[in-house]
Amino acid sequence: MNAKKSDKDNVDHRRVLETLLAAYMEPAFGSLPKREVDLKFLEALESVGRIPKEPTIYDLVTTLRITRGKARALLYDWELRRSTPDSIREKAIAVLKRPVFENKGKTLSLEIENPLVSDWIREQAKIHRFIADGTFSPTLITMPISGFILIIESILDEAHKKEVRKALVKAGAKDGSFTSVMGSALEHVATKVIGEAGEAVAAQAMSYLTPLFSEVGASVTTEIPKLFGPLFGPKN
User: Fold this and answer.
1) Which of 82, 102, 132 is the last residue of a domain?
2) For 50-73, what is each residue's pLDDT tens digit?
3) CB atoms within 10 A of CB 226
4) Is there a contact between 57 and 71 (Cβ–Cβ < 8 Å)?
5) Residue 30 — left, alpha, or beta (φ > 0 → left; ψ -120 to 50 → alpha)?
């Protein structure tokens, strides 16, 4: 009985090689800049399964045996060529779901491996005029809770924000603007998860934040009150 083939076994290596060679021949043999050649090889490595579809900097460091600086620059250029505004937004949302609360819930940090997403979040900080500090590491951004809320506001449309606000008020938050209701909700989440370590904090925070970004429907109207209700406590 034949074993089930893996994705690697199903790859058409001839097609991958032909694509790579065709790219190297454009517009003439050997005329591509070295960085473009590197990116074509990176695409080929992803096609044959040697690197993940969404590689981390560490994946590139260990697989390609290059420095973190070179891996980050390579990943940045690759993301520039294959990303769209919508895909960057979706990747940013995935990061925003996993904050680590700090400083008694007044600030939070985001671990961002994707340098293009990091740039997107820093640009949001400039637009909304708050400090996004990346002093200690290029992959770690720290910001105030208020800034985090401004980014969420910029991502969700008005109808979505209205439903999230209503669901949080139903859960026990004091009625008010989206900003004030979200601030109260995040304060309660921070109180719940603060003091735990690393992944435990991010994973627990993610369980609360994921429904906030879900499509309007049961995940918002039902899951948010169920999750946040115990945080706010019984209504008076």
Assistant:
1) 82
2) 999 999 999 999 999 999 999 999
3) 11
4) yes
5) left
201 shares its domain with 96: yes
Handedness of CA 91, 92, 95, 97 (dihedral sign): negative
Assess if residue 161 is contained within a domain: yes
- Number of folded domains that form the chain: 2
Q: Mind listing the pLDDT tens digit for each residue in 124-136? A: 999 999 999 988 8
8 A C-beta contact, residue 230 and residue 211: no
- Torsional sign, CA 180, 181, 185, 191: positive
Q: Crossing angle for the helix pair 85-96 and 198-213, nearest 10 degrees?
A: 130
Domain around 147: 88-232
Instruction: Please state the φ and ψ torsions of residue 106, each to the nearest 5 degrees.
Output: -85, -25
Q: What are phi and psi of 99, to 5 degrees?
A: -80, 155
Are 110 and 212 in a shared domain? yes
The verdict on 106 and 213 lying in the same domain is yes
Number of H helices, E strands in the chain: 12, 3
Q: What 8-state DSSP symbol labels residue 208?
A: H
Pairing of strands 100-102, 107-111: antiparallel
Question: Domain check: are 149 and 227 in the same one?
Answer: yes
**ω before 55 within 30° of 0 (cis)?**
no
